[in-house]
Design brief:
- The protein folds into 3 domains: 219 residues, Rossmann fold (3-Layer(aba) Sandwich), CATH 3.40.50; 198 residues, Rossmann fold (3-Layer(aba) Sandwich); 177 residues, no CATH class.
- The protein contains 20 helices and 22 strands.
- α16 runs antiparallel to α20.
- It starts with a strand and ends with a helix.
């Protein structure tokens, strides 16, 4: 069985070749208004696209929306009964700890329709499948091509799933629709480009962001283009400065957004990260040859980013690598097409120097992508309503007051943001709540660390020797806090909510020491054998840590991707890293400065794990 599927922009119809089937609206004399809870992770300083997408529902949908901006605020007393739909927005990282196990369980059993928006879907697909199944997701919106929906999101893995719809990563906000880009063609820059170097395990498609920057830096010098091109993090531009940068550029560069390597199990990510930790200078080609040659191009997520719409709205002529671009862009019509091997670069340069042609291409992109309204958030919001009309089967009879909802969130959990059309405003008191949240966390850390004397000795050396100038206290405390939880567990403490065991495992070839969690019900007690530590010598391992040649991690993946502990009769959740793997990187770095104290900490934990 395959869930219902739909393409990226059903409202476009036959505007472009391959246009998708239209969705018929729910037939009703009076269209119902649903009460929709949106669970997001939003701090007010997120990128424009997060804000624009998150609040477009509030501005353009006919329904009533109730926003949660911090998933941690969903406590046991939170009432899901008034809501017809629970929408989990893509800013919530599903494997993370900010959405607690208790909240997930209550979402699963809620009667509301469960809807999920997801992005960055190239990594740990099967883990996300399991989490979606645990949440009881029924309708999802994805950037994956319709023909691959059943590969990524099959009903066999997600039995609750009823419908899958393809969407873009973002659309055209109202403030870009209001821009008049062609007041002047005279701009100080010929080529303007900003991006960042993405992780190598996104494959060749992700690598293109660096390639296009490097090649056009060379091309600019050779052909005399005035350019400002960078992929360095320190050169990133945000907000109004970014808009002004685009308005000052005749051309923008680009490549398709997505990935050409899909990591279904998380193994590619882990293998690359482990190898890079031991070989920080490893090249992209080296990593590809070792870990993902076979996966390259097997499944591809190839879509457009909101930057395409920004470039079109601000009158830039796009010079892009060839690609599918989610079917939105057509080469020669909306952008000057660069072959990926740069075999047509002479023709590309000739087109860039043809003023009439470049203006026509920019005008085409503006007309089709912006002025037409086909890709506006307004159009998306109207289409989204038709999707809900088709999938919502029940309405809650329980009333809810918006003012009471937001007042409760403000006083109970310090939620200071209030939605206002397609943006938000901030209530006073954010610093007050942040200050007391920090104090509360500090108190927890101190009380839970007290029994672990060697950790306090290590922290004393950390401050006495001035190591705090080189290694972040935040990340060191994160490492030590997790080790103290392991110690507490192995010594019989009831701090941990879900009972499990831990055993040490050493992989001599990789110089990797792992503390591996196991479910006590699975019969893994037999794993605690001396064979798992064969070849381990603590002094040698510390020496390898000092030389950045060894790895130390907690593999909690056999149990979960996050961990819950109890403190003063309240349950807290901490993230255990991607797919349940947490690396003790700060502690490993500290071994360079005070190896004897790090050795004492490891000795204490390993001894407890082996014999505790």
């Amino acid at each position: 069985m395959v869930p219902e599927q739909s393409g990226a922009y059903p409202w476009v119809g036959s505007l472009y070749p391959g246009g998708q089937e239209r969705l018929e609206p729910f037939v009703s004399i009076v269209a119902p208004v649903f009460k929709i809870l949106i669970i997001s992770d939003f701090n007010g300083a997120d990128a424009n696209v997060v804000r624009d997408f998150l609040f477009c529902f509030n501005r353009y949908s006919r329904h009533d929306f109730y926003y949660i901006f911090d998933p941690r605020s969903i406590t046991e007393s939170f009432d899901f009964k008034p809501f017809d739909v629970i929408l989990i927005f893509w800013s919530v990282y599903l494997p993370g700890s900010r959405l607690s196990n208790a909240a997930r369980e209550r979402i699963r059993h809620a009667e509301a329709l469960k809807v999920l928006f997801l992005q960055d879907e190239y990594r740990n697909v099967h883990l996300f499948n399991r989490l979606m199944s645990d949440l009881g997701v029924q309708v999802m919106f994805t950037c994956v091509a319709a023909e691959d929906h059943n590969v990524f999101y099959s009903v066999e893995r997600i039995p609750s799933l009823q419908a899958v719809y393809r969407v873009l990563t973002g659309y055209v906000p109202s403030y870009l629709e209001a821009v008049h880009p062609f007041d002047s063609w005279d701009r100080p820059l010929d080529i303007g480009y900003r991006s960042r170097a993405v992780s190598p395990y996104l494959g060749d498609l992700g690598r293109e962001k660096i390639v296009v920057a490097e090649r056009f830096q060379e091309i600019s010098k050779r052909y005399g283009f005035r350019s400002d091109i960078s992929v360095r993090e320190e050169d990133r531009i945000y907000g109004r400065a970014w808009i002004n940068f685009l308005k000052s550029s005749r051309f923008t560069l680009g490549s398709a957004s997505g990935a050409s390597v899909v990591d279904f199990t998380g193994d590619i990510y882990r293998n690359c990260e482990n190898y890079l930790a031991l070989n920080p200078g490893a090249s992209y080609d080296e990593l590809k040859d070792r870990f993902f040659t076979e996966a390259e191009g097997k499944y591809v997520i190839d879509t457009v980013s909101p930057r395409v719409f920004e470039s079109a709205a601000l009158g830039c002529t796009m010079v892009f690598h060839e690609g599918f671009y989610g079917g939105v862009l057509r080469p020669g019509v909306h952008y000057i097409c660069v072959k990926k091997d740069y075999s047509n670069i002479e023709d590309v340069v000739a087109q860039m120097k043809d003023s009439a042609l470049t203006r026509q291409i920019a005008a085409n992109a503006y007309h089709d992508l912006i002025a037409s309204g086909a890709y506006s958030y307004r159009t998306f919001g109207n289409w989204f309503d038709t999707v809900l009309d088709k999938n919502v089967k029940r309405l809650s009879q329980k009333a809810i007051s918006k003012s009471a909802f937001y007042a409760s969130n403000y006083f109970r959990s310090g939620q200071v943001y209030l939605p206002k059309e397609d943006t938000f405003f901030v209530l006073p008191g954010r610093k007050f709540f942040d200050f007391f949240r920090i104090l509360k966390k500090l108190e927890q850390n101190i009380r839970l660390h007290l029994p672990f004397l060697v950790m306090w000795q290590l922290l004393f050396q950390y401050f006495r020797r001035g190591i705090w100038k080189r290694i972040s206290l935040k990340y060191l405390v994160m490492d030590l806090f997790r080790l103290s939880l392991i110690r507490s567990l192995l010594q019989g403490s009831k701090v941990i909510v879900v009972d499990f065991g831990v055993y040490p495992e050493y992989k001599p070839r990789q110089f990797m020491l792992s503390l591996v969690s196991y479910d006590l019900k699975s019969g893994m007690q037999n794993a605690k054998s001396e064979g798992f530590m064969t070849g381990f010598d603590l002094s040698q391992f510390i020496s390898h840590l000092q030389n950045n040649q060894a790895l130390f991690e907690w593999d909690h993946s056999p149990v979960d991707s996050h961990l819950e502990y109890e403190y003063r009769k309240k349950v807290y959740s901490i993230d255990m890293g991607l797919d349940g793997h947490y690396g003790f990187y700060a502690l490993a770095e500290l071994a360079r400065y005070c190896p004897e104290w790090v050795a004492d900490v490891l000795r204490s934990v390993i001894y407890a794990a082996e014999y505790g």
